[in-house]
Each structure stands twice: as structure tokens, then as C-alpha cells.
User: What shape does this take?
Amino acid sequence: MIFMQPNINSNSLKEVYKSLFDFNHDACYALDMDGNFTLFNEEAVKITGYSAEESLKMNFVSLLHEDYFEDTIQHFKRVTQGHRERFETTILKKDSGEQVHLLLTAVPIMVGRKVLGVVGCAQDITKKKELEALLNGQNLILKMIAKGTPFSEVLDRIVLFIERFTHGALCSIMIADKEGKRLLHGSSPSLPAAYNEAVDGVPIGPSAGSCGTAAYLRRSVTVTDIGTDPLWKEYRDLALSYGLQACWSSPVFDDDQRVVGTFGMYYSGTTSPREKDMKIIQKATDLTSLVIQHYQAKEKIDFMAYHDALTGLPNRRLFDKRVEAAIDGTNVNEGEKLCLMFLDLDRFKNVNDSLGHSIGDKLLMYVSAKLVNCLGDGATFSRQGGDEFTILLEHTTKEEARAVAQKILDTLAEPFVIEGTDIFITTSVGMSLYPDDGEDVGVLLSKADVAMYQAKKQGRNNFQTYDVLLDKKAFEKLQIENELRKALERNEFELNYQPIINLCTNNLTGAEALIRWNNEKCGNVSPQQFIPIAEETGMIVEIGEWVLKTALLQLKNWHLDGMAGLTMSVNLSIRQFYQPNLIKMISDTLVETGVEPRFLTIEITESMTMDVETASVILHELKKLGVNISIDDFGTGYSSLSYLKRFPIDHLKIDRCFIRDITDNKSDENIATTIILMAHNLGLSVIAEGVETEGQLQLLKQHRCNAAQGYLFSKPVPAEEFITFKVPS
Ligand code: C2E
Ligand code: MG
Ligand code: MG
Assistant: This one.
């Protein structure tokens, strides 16, 4: 339906239509019922490249890109049946064959109820389509990269994409390794076979010029460089002889950020004018450099995920992967072995503490570099964290592995000079073997770790191979250590008390508090087993405070219950002894529990008094508090009574081992009696430990030993039982 002003007559209406047709921004056309052009405006001439005269001899189908034949003809048919259509199609421009994307409107030419032809407009949407394709292509490729699609697949897609994007222009993508060997070559199916063959034969490397050369040499290459770099000339000539007008390439990096090859693209200009071609190339270059950038970023992220930031060495994750791969590649049936080493720098903490963390970090870097050099390419060397490193040796034997470990120790024997300071560092190395010591990385590493601890125990600066027996002990120790940490809060400790009997009066004079630990996982653990661990970890300080307080509270109760005069002996460990707040802690506990100091006896061992000066100061301060001091396990340490003169000591406890055989062994008897005599001369009272028989007791009494404790009287027992104790008459 047409609406008109009444003053426009039918002639002027024709003019309106004609003007609309001729001067339209879009291409306008009319077709007869067979699809032959009957009208063709100026814009249509521009878009198609055909003149008006030429077009009037043409059918619209001859303009179409073959991919759009069917669809476009369907739309045409519908219009001839009286419908209006709006659709997209692609035509080929005259001569250049360049593709032009069009948005078409087509309506029937109606006379009465009869359709006589088709009239319509066409808008050139090529630019919009190209942009869309570029964005889609980028998105597609970026998505693939983000998903971690293998490089080769991404390349395949780029080939397809570029091919479409450049409207059928030839395209090839190639990756070559350092030696110029072609690793991957994706190329458009429309590329002449001769081209591929020729490229195959072109060496890529610094001596022979090729497209990859510049990238290989890490020169920055832009499209305009082509032809100016002599190294490119040879290849360019070849490319030109196959109708290729431009090429582009970029380096490809491996995990270690080294150039391992090149990634290149070659375009043909045969189907488009040079100017347009260069634009496409520019876009394609932008796109592919984006791809490369993303690859590099991804590689960097991958690198960081698998390498240690400080030393650049493989990290634990990569190491584990390599070990897994190595295990798979080891032919156990042929007797092949793998060796895993665990390496821990000795006293590295001292370096950090005394020289600072920045020197510590430098030392770690220097040590890594030196070891990388020493180990060569045959080994995987990784940093686990801190000053711990691991090494994987493949296809090796126990002997070879030992030789490598020795070489590591020798290598580190030379001092490092860091910021003018000579730093000497040694290392302890533990090793485990596959398949002998375990089947997987976790087990092998933990066993190498156990062996490393053994090396530390052996005095450091040495290596040890894994040994099952050591492992069992180490495991138990670890378990005890873990459980011990929670024992206090879980209330797992208890004190037992062993009576101490005055041998002159035959009276109970005191009790020795002895700790007991019952743990769900470890069972009853003897103090001989867990006290050294508590010492090592420092937990003894807290445990010791608990023991003192518990024992004194108990003593206070006994005093109140009528056992006045009873003393309490409490064992002190060396770590506690040297705690700066020891004196305060003891005096506070005495005050808190309301026990007079004279009823407390502190038991220390000879080994604690090695530092005679300090020990003497501490002991004098203790004495000032008013407590008694006892030397426990006497005879097992220095056995020198002379230095005891310097200490304010009250009692000597003769170790059980001297008491055990005193009735059968004359020399043991002599030792015991000599100790008693000398102690008496020094004004000390003597307590015999571990008295089990009447014979031992009689002999001790004979030699005027002052007191005794042992199974003969009672084992250490819980408090409830202790109060029922009666000295046998
Ligand atoms: P110790 O202080 O020399 O304690 C004497 C040890 O000899 C106790 O072993 C006791 O049960 C045992 N004993 C006593 N009479 C006899 C006997 O007639 N025959 C035999 N065969 N053994 C006897 P226990 O309780 O296993 O303690 C071992 C060591 O653990 C103690 O030796 C002491 O050094 C340490 N210890 C125990 N409790 C504590 C504590 O609370 N703190 C600290 N720091 N060390 C403790
Ligand atoms: Mg003791
Ligand atoms: Mg003892």
C-alpha cells in the first residue's frame, strides 16, 4: 500500500521511485522471474565490479559464491511466490574474485495479484563480517588455549580459520626445531603440493636463509621487513615463485623459555589485490601474535607452576611427574634401577640467622647452580622447599648413585664467597632405590628422607642409603613426636612414685616422681623412649613444669595426710636445666603448691654439668631457694668426684648398673663402695638405685649407704598405691 500527497501526480511518483533506486546508498536491483537482472543501480556497479550493461546480460546466480547458491535461490523462489525476504549472501567481485558479503532485501514486483519479478536492495556487510570472523576466530583460539588444547590442534584450527578469513588465500603454518627439522606443518588444502614439497626441502637455520631464520635468530620481524633482510631473500624468492606474497614467523619456546623452533605463516596474494592482502596479513599477524603472547603467558604460568621461583629448578610437582615417568620407563626385568636422593643442607638455619635471609637465598641459588653443573644433564635436580633438594638418577646402580652422592659432597666442600664472606656449607644426603625400596614417588622420597636423617645423625656431611631397620625406628619416633605434642592437653600423662628408704632408720623418707605416658596409638611409652624426643623438640619444658606441679601438689596432700617430712624427688632434663626462668619457675611452683623448698629434691645428671661454670651458677641459685640437689645415675657420666666439690650437692644416686652385680662381681662392689666412701668424704649422702635383692641391700647397708630405692621395696606406683606402702621390717 502506497500513501501519497494528493498534489503528487503519477508522473512524479515514478520520479520518486527512480530517485530512490538510482541514488540509494545501497545497491538496488530488479530481476525478472528467471533471475535475470533488469535494473542495476550505480552502487550495485561499485559492489559487484560489473557495469550496468554487463549486468543486464547476467543472471544473479552467476554472481553468487558457490557456498550460497542453494540458499539464495530458495529465497528468490519465495519472493516470486509473493513473499518478502531479508537474508545474507556472498558474491564474488568481478576479476579479483574477492568475496563480498551482502545483506539483501527482496520483494516481489506485483501487478494486480500477479508477480512479475523481484526488486530489492543489497548492503555491503563485508567489513562487519570480517570483524566478526576475526573476533570469533580469536575467541575460539583463546578458548582453546585457556582449555589447554594441544598446540598442534590449535594450529589446525588457525589454518582453517585463516583460510576462511583470507577468503581462500593460501596459508601454511609451520613449526621447526632448532636443527631446522620440521615438526609440524599445517597448510591449506588449496596450497600446491609443490609448495609443500619445496618447503620441506628448505632448511631452517642461521646458515640457510628461510622464513624461520629470523625468528630463530630472535630478530624482530614485521611484514615490511620482508625482502630487506638478506636472510629472507632466498625464501621470499621461492615463496614468490609459488605465488606467495608474504610471510611471517615467530619463535616457539620450550618449558625452559628457550627457543626451540619457529612458527611461521605464508600467504598467497593470488586471490586478492596486494593492498587488501597486506591488510589481511596485518590482521592475521595481530591475531597470531596474540596467540603467541597467550602461549608465552601460558608457558610462563606453567613454568611457575612447575618450577621453584628462587632457583628456577623444577619444583616438587614437576619432580614427582618426572619420577613417575622414569618409573614407567625403567625396565626392572633387565635389572635397571632408579635412585632418588634427598639432600638437606647442614646448619643452613645458622646462615639465615647469622647472615640474613638475603644471603641465605643467594647461598641456595649458588648451591643449586653448582649442583646443576656437577650433576649434568643426566639427572633431574629439584628444590622441595627450604634447604631441601631432591635428585633423580635414571638407569643407575647403587654404586653409581653412591659415586654421585660423593661427588655432591666434594662439590660443596669448596666455600662459597657471597658478598665478600666465605661460607662453608655441607650437606647430608639420603638415597632410596627403585624398585628395591618402594614402588612410587611418595614412598621412595620418604625413604630417601629417612636415610637423610640418618646421615644427619651420623654427624652430617655424608650420605646414607635407605635401610629398613632405620626406617622402623624413624617412623616410631615420628609417631611418638606427633602424639607427644597433644599428650599434655589430652591429659595422657600420669606420675608414679617410687619410695626412697632411709637405710639407717629403715623408714620411708621420700618419693621419686616418675612420669608415665599412655597413648592410644603408641600404647605405654617408657620415659627412656619419649623423654629424649621431648628434649629434642623442646616439649620437655612444658612437660617438666607439669611434672613438678603435679608432684608437689601430691606431696602437699601427703603432708596434710600426716606423712610429714616426706621429700619429693623430681627429675630435671638438660633442656629444663638451662631454661633462663628455671629458678623462678621452681620457686613459683613451690609457692603455688605451698610446699617448703627443703622437701623438694631436684635430680640432675652428670652430663648437665659439663659446662661447669654455668652449671655451678644455676646450682647455687637452686641451692639458695632451699631445695636439695641430687646427682642422678652417678657413675655413668664423668665419674669424677673432684669437680663435684664445686657444686652445692646434697645426694649422689649410684646408677643401677653398679648395684646390679655388686653381690657377684667384686669389682662392681669395689666401685660402689668407693663411690660411697668418697661421697661421704665430700659430705654427700648416697642413694642406691635399682636395689632388687636382699643381698644387695645387705651389702649396701654394710658400706653405710644412706638410702635406697628399688623393686625390692616397691616399683614406681600410682599415688593411691604409694600411701599403702610399708617398709618391710
Ligand atoms: P631415673 O631418674 O634414674 O629413674 C629410675 C628408673 O629406674 C625408673 O625408670 C625406675 O622405674 C627404674 N627402677 C627403679 N627401681 C628399679 C629396680 O629395682 N630395677 C629396675 N630394673 N629398674 C628400676 P623409669 O621410670 O622408666 O624412668 C627412666 C628414666 O626416665 C628416669 O631415670 C629419668 O631419667 C627419666 N624420667 C622419668 N620421669 C621423668 C620426668 O618426669 N622428667 C624427666 N626429665 N625425666 C624423667
Ligand atoms: Mg631419677
Ligand atoms: Mg637414675
Remarks:
- Residues 23 and 42 are 8 Å apart (CA to CA).
- The radius of gyration is 47 Å.
- Residues 632-633, 653, 655, 689 surround magnesium ion (ligand 3) (CB under 6 Å).
